Amino acid sequence: MKSSRLLSIVLLLQTRGRVPAAELAERLEVSTRTVYRDIEALSAAGVPVYAERGRHGGIALLPGFRTDVTGMTTDEARALFILAAQGAHSALGLDDALRSALQKVMAALPAPHRPAAELAGRRILVDPDKWTTRPSSAAITEDGPTGRRATVDLDVLHTAVFTDLRLRIGYRHSGETRLRRYTVDPYGLVAKAGTWYLVADRRGRPQLFRADRVASATLTEVPVRRRAGVELAEVWQLLRRRVEHRPAEVRVTARIRRDRLDLAVRILGGALTGPPRTEDGDGTGAGEWATLDLAFPVLPAVRQLLQFGDSLEVLAPPEARRVMAEAAAALTTLYAGAVADRPS
After folding, report:
1. Over the chain (344 residues), what is each successive 10-residue block's mean pLDDT?
2. How many domains is the chain partitioned into structurally?
3. Start and end of every HTH deoR-type domain (predicted)?
4. Does residue 137 belong to any structural domain of this protein?
5. In this structure, what DSSP letter does residue 224 have?
6. Is residue 314 part of a domain?
């Protein structure tokens, strides 16, 4: 622990310059007396550290002394700061280790590059977890996990979030063919389970735009107007909760053949409201069918169940069965000619 603390002192002094002993003690969670003992140990080891008394005094390193503990390039450091924002470290109990690692990286960077590394962590977030529910087509501006291939290079959005300028975008919502035009104030970009999203304010309200539905993006010359004191991580948590906790409007019961059950669970996992139930109800899985309890944000979304063909039947509610019947009838009409022309 002492060797780690000594290194932390050197890195803090290297980054901050002169630091009061009381501040070092508070940061390292030790007494001021322990800090002075550590300074003596560093000095004995050949580190050119000294203490100045007085109102403006503190502990400092001699000018020109540096130690490079990482060997990282600036881009590598920026990448680390981005990954540090993903939040997985808390779950693993690695917050202290992460703080120490970032401190070492910051100390190793040339001073002119440090602001860029810090900014990267505030403008780019990585959230590796999948959505816990399927957002509705109305939600993206808080949209869900399906979409088109990007029509705007991600570099354009990346530039936008680092230039602190307003952005004009042409956006295609799920299920729509026409573009909607928005002027937004970007906070940053979030990679959610491998899919990129632009987090921005529109008319002072936070919204989420899926990057692969942004058809055009133009920087304005107007400075960005973010809400005072609000950062990307805070806005992202708000939008993520809003999407994942959106109340479902349509509850659907369906049955599916057992040999397609595993596939259905993988595809419909976000819509399932409980574990599948076997038809015989004894939990042995002996029946040919299994029952699924599903939730969809809007009634037309039930049509995604058509992908399972006659292996899945919607049982309730009646309006959901009607949507499925109408969609199946439309498909029958569409392909009726192809069946008639098929050689016998």
Report:
1. 73 82 87 88 83 80 67 55 52 56 60 62 77 51 42 76 89 79 93 87 92 90 90 90 76 94 88 81 64 89 93 95 93 78 60
2. 4
3. 2-61
4. no
5. P
6. yes
CATH number, domain of 258, equals 3.30.70
Assessment of whether the complete model's pTM goes beyond 0.90 = no
Pairing of strands 277-278, 195-202: unpaired
Torsions phi, psi for 201 (to 5 deg): -95, 140
Q: Which domain holds residue 290?
A: 250-341
CA quadruple 4, 10, 12, 14: dihedral positive or negative? negative
Residue 140 counted as domain residue: no
Q: Are residues 284 and 239 in the same domain?
A: no
In 39-179, at which residue ranges do the beta strands (DSSP E only) sit?
A: 49-52, 58-61, 124-127, 165-171
What would the two tokens of residue 175 be? 């299920």
The amino acid present at 31, given as its one-letter code, is S
Q: Is residue 120 part of a domain?
A: yes
Residues 76-94: b if buried by 16+ CB within 10 A, e if exposed: ebbebbbbbbeeebeeeee
Same domain, 258 and 232: no
Going through the chain in order, the beta strands assigned E by DSSP cover: 49-52, 58-61, 124-127, 165-171, 180-192, 195-202, 205-210, 214-223, 250-257, 277-278, 289-296, 312-316
CB 182 within 8 A of CB 169: yes
